């Protein structure tokens, strides 16, 4: 019989219910943590070198291991970052030419 | 080699030093140059740099090939960029 345990921590929306068949043949729910979402760039690409996990684990990881060590590291993917940098550098060059 | 030549002031667009200014001091081959910030000015270390990671600016310094960092700083003092570089150093 599938029954939902609504007591205590099990009631939290955070947890996800997974139906599991036990060795005894019963069908029960197991309560598992929801998966954490991946860090993504504004272009939709998944960011490399950005681990995901509960905050309790993430706060123990050094900052240098949580995002790439470059401007916009952990916010923009390298392609978007470079586009941004090239655009600003070209604009700067044109401004220098004009002055 | 086009516009990437000794003395050319460039902006780095990739890696940890992206967005910083640097000066080309030596051409290694068609893909790589040696560039320097110099480090105490812009934070860019003296290092080999892929040409694809540089965007040239319309400023060229009068420095010899393989110039030392002190020589580059002296050359930069004659340009408008020097103040800008020092500001960049304070903010970044």
TrEMBL record, chain A:
Keywords: Ribonucleoprotein, Ribosomal protein. Transmembrane segments: none annotated. The keyword Ribosomal protein applies. One of its GO terms (cellular component) is ribonucleoprotein complex. InterPro entries: Ribosomal_eL34 (IPR008195), Ribosomal_eL34_C_sf (IPR038562), Ribosomal_L34e_arc-type (IPR047868). The keyword Ribonucleoprotein applies. GO terms for biological process: translation. Belongs to the eukaryotic ribosomal protein eL34 family. This is Large ribosomal subunit protein eL34. The gene is rpl34e.
UniProtKB/TrEMBL annotation, chain B:
Gene3D superfamilies: 2.30.30.30. PANTHER family: 60S RIBOSOMAL PROTEIN L14, LARGE RIBOSOMAL SUBUNIT PROTEIN EL14. One of its GO terms (biological process) is ribosomal large subunit biogenesis. Keywords: Ribonucleoprotein, Ribosomal protein. It holds the Pfam family KOW. InterPro entries: KOW (IPR005824), Rib_uL2_dom2 (IPR014722), Ribosomal_eL14 (IPR039660), Ribosomal_eL14_KOW (IPR041985), Translation_prot_SH3-like_sf (IPR008991). This is 50S ribosomal protein L14e. It comes from the Archaea. NCBIfam families: PRK04333.1. Residues 6-33 form the KOW domain. One of its GO terms (molecular function) is RNA binding. GO terms for cellular component: cytosolic large ribosomal subunit. The keyword Protein biosynthesis does not apply. SUPFAM superfamilies: Translation proteins SH3-like domain.
């Amino acid at each position: 019989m599938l029954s939902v345990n609504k007591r205590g921590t099990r009631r939290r929306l955070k947890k996800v219910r997974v139906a599991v068949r036990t060795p005894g043949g019963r069908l029960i729910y197991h309560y598992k943590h929801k998966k954490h979402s991946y860090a993504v760039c504004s272009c939709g690409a998944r960011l490399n070198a950005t681990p995901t996990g509960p905050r309790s684990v993430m706060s123990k990881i050094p900052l240098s291991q949580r995002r790439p060590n470059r401007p916009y590291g952990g916010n923009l993917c390298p392609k978007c970052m470079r586009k941004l940098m090239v655009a600003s550098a070209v604009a700067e060059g044109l401004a220098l030419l004009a002055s | 080699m086009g516009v990437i030549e000794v003395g050319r002031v460039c902006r780095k667009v990739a890696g940890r030093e992206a967005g910083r200014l640097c000066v080309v001091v030596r051409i290694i081959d068609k893909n790589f140059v040696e560039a320097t910030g110099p480090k105490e000015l812009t934070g860019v270390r003296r290092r080999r740099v892929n040409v694809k990671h540089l965007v040239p600016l319309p400023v060229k310094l009068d420095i010899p090939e393989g110039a030392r960092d002190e020589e580059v700083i002296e050359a930069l003092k004659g340009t408008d960029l020097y103040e800008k570089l020092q500001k960049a150093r304070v903010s970044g």
